[in-house]
Amino acid sequence: MRVQTPVVDDLMVADPALVPVTVVAEGAWIGKFRIVRELGRGGMAVVYEARDSLLDRSVAIKVLRENWHEQSSMIQRFLNEARSVARIAHPNLVAVYDAGQVDGHYYIVLELVRGQNLQTLIQRQRLTWFEATRIVADAGRGLQTAHGLGIVHRDIKPSNLLLAEDGVVKLSDFGLMRFLQSEGPDSTRTGSLMGTPEYMSPEQCRSERAGIASDIYSLGATYYALLTG
CB within 8 A of 129, min separation 6: which ones? Predict the structure, then answer.
């Protein structure tokens, strides 16, 4: 079955038929990275497959949308994602290679995971309980490592779990992350919510501070989605 609406994900090589219209043209350069094609887009950034001309390898490059360039808080959030995830080395987390700003583009360079996200997978096929459990257990190991460094993801959902071609599960997209020691509510402005409603914990829905338990709640909701489709 072909998915009719593209599932936006940050690091996957998407089905070419589902790839959105390109913003940065194929063949364009961002620093030493040559854009190959667009992989997906979200509210904060657009993600491309690119080629590192110096190291001669394929990567995913996440580029902040231009409409956020005038908001320093969004730029800071975007770069904080790179700094924070770069501290983590774990097989179940997507690796961060680099970040910077060039020619007006703020970008993060990440490991390119060839495979598919779990949202796409469960729309196409039914997982066995054993496979769903294995996937969530692997994601939980990566999440535990992030929590150990004081990082709360805040957006655990099937489309942020990537299943590589070799079967390894990787947790991606820390764009909404926060630090456990940070103070104040999780919303950036009055009345705003951070997260994906179907998978948000009750405290996130109330714009209260999200902690480790919030991520565990969202991982449980994700497990339910993987089991039931």
Answer: 227
pLDDT of residue 58: 96
Residue bearing tokens 């231009």 = 66
Cα distances (angstroms) measured from residue 122 to each of 23, 32, 132, 160, 227: 28, 36, 10, 13, 9
State the average pLDDT for the chain: 83
- Say which of 10, 155, 173, 186 is annotated catalytic: 155
Catalytic-residue membership of 155: yes
Rounded Cα distance, 191 and 24, in Å: 33
| Residues 196/157, Cβ–Cβ less than 8 Å | yes
Cβ count near 115 (within 10 Å) = 19
CA atoms within a 13 Å half-sphere pointing along the CA-CB vector of 169: 20
Tokens for 136, please give them: 């969530």
> Residue 171 is encoded by which pair of tokens?
């947790």
At 67, the pLDDT band (50, 70, 90 cuts) reads low
| pLDDT tens per residue, range 11-47 | 444 444 444 445 788 888 999 999 999 988 877 788 9
Give which of 42, 84, 38, 88 is closest to 61, Cα–Cα.
38
- Asked whether the whole model's pTM tops 0.85, one would answer no
Residue showing tokens 């926060």: 178
Pull the structure tokens for residue 38.
């667009």
Strands 115-117 and 105-110: unpaired
